[in-house]
Amino acid sequence: MSNLQRNSKLLLYGQALSFMGDYCVLPALLILSTYYQDYWVTSGVIIVRSIPMILQPFLGVWVDRFSRVKIMLWTDIIRGFIFLSVTLLPSGEYPSFFLLLLLLSYGSGVFFNPARLAVMSSLGDDIKRVNTLFAKATTLCVIAGALIGAGFLAVGSVKSAVAFNALTYFVSAIFIGRMNIQSEASLKIRKAKMVESFLQGMKEIGRNPFVLNAVLTMMAMSLVCGVVYSYFPIVSQSIGEGEIGNFILTVTIGLGGFLGALLVNRWGFNSDRGLVYFIVLSLTSLSVFMYSSSFSIAFIAAVGLFVALEYGEVLAKVKVQENSGNEIQGRIFAVSEALIGLAISVGSTLVNFASTLVILSLLIISMLGLFVHTKLVNKLYVTTSNEQSSTIL
């Protein structure tokens, strides 16, 4: 940590706090949605949190043309004020307005992720180290955020968790405002047209098998996440009234993510061993989580699932950052975020009209398809590396 550059530290501090707020407010929003006595509102929370990402293929063009730091700064400020507005709504009333406010907040936030991911690639030469440290720090704050939210619920104020999230956005904006990315000056002089730039991003994904595999990995994992989030209130019912269970299950996101980040180097990048561990752990944990009638067993299974998903996420991001130019990464990440949002939204709705067996079967098919594609890409990686080594010799 002491060896990180100033910009890296500022981004890490700000985003750790922001993640703390995000995962303090997620279970709080799921709880508030249950007060409307309509499970489609619960699915709606996940959908409005994810569906704005579909706009990101077009927003990535602007991310690449303007100051990425300023984009991050203003989206944090806007989201903070909107979440403060959510706390003013009466519980269980005005469901449409409740979802509209969330849509506006998450809608303004779609500018943020492609900007952040592109900024991270400018923080230093050791991209793997920056990504791994980022994953470790933020996952710890996910745990802290969920525990803070549980504390608010314990004293009878779930809306305080929403207010806390707004506060973390404001503090994050302060850290971001102190960043100084010199390389951003060149981004402001680009004059590529929007459609042209969008097609460049799509073309890069289509022609580059490593980037395509990274995008497919993120889509498959997002479909799983959408399903798992929608099952949080259901699994939580196995302990008393169930509300506190939403916060406890949110802890698994951070705990599993932290452990998964630790395993990245051990399981390896582009390795068949890591791929097998990733697929087997994902499917086994998912099956146990969805079918277990014991909250304790479901909790352990959820930890295992998020261990696997964190490993897959780090690998996917590194594949994009190592196998594409920095000047086009904003567009690539924007397209991937759009597909992630769509996948999470689809996953969150399945619980309303499909049985657990059908949902699990669909997820198994998607993960096995990903396994085959990644296996082929890993083989290509080894072949390419051997050819490069032979050329050097």
Automatic annotation (TrEMBL):
The chain crosses the membrane at residues 12-33, 39-59, 94-112, 133-155, 161-181, 210-232, 244-263, 275-291, 353-372. SUPFAM superfamilies: MFS general substrate transporter (SSF103473). GO terms for molecular function: transmembrane transporter activity. The keyword Cytoplasm does not apply. Keywords: Cell membrane, Membrane, Transmembrane, Transmembrane helix, Transport. The keyword Transport applies. It is found in: Cell membrane. GO terms for cellular component: plasma membrane. InterPro entries: Bacilysin_exporter_BacE_put, MFS, MFS_trans_sf. It comes from the Bacteria. It is a multi-pass membrane protein. CDD domains: MFS_MefA_like (cd06173). This is MFS transporter. It comes from Paenibacillus sambharensis.
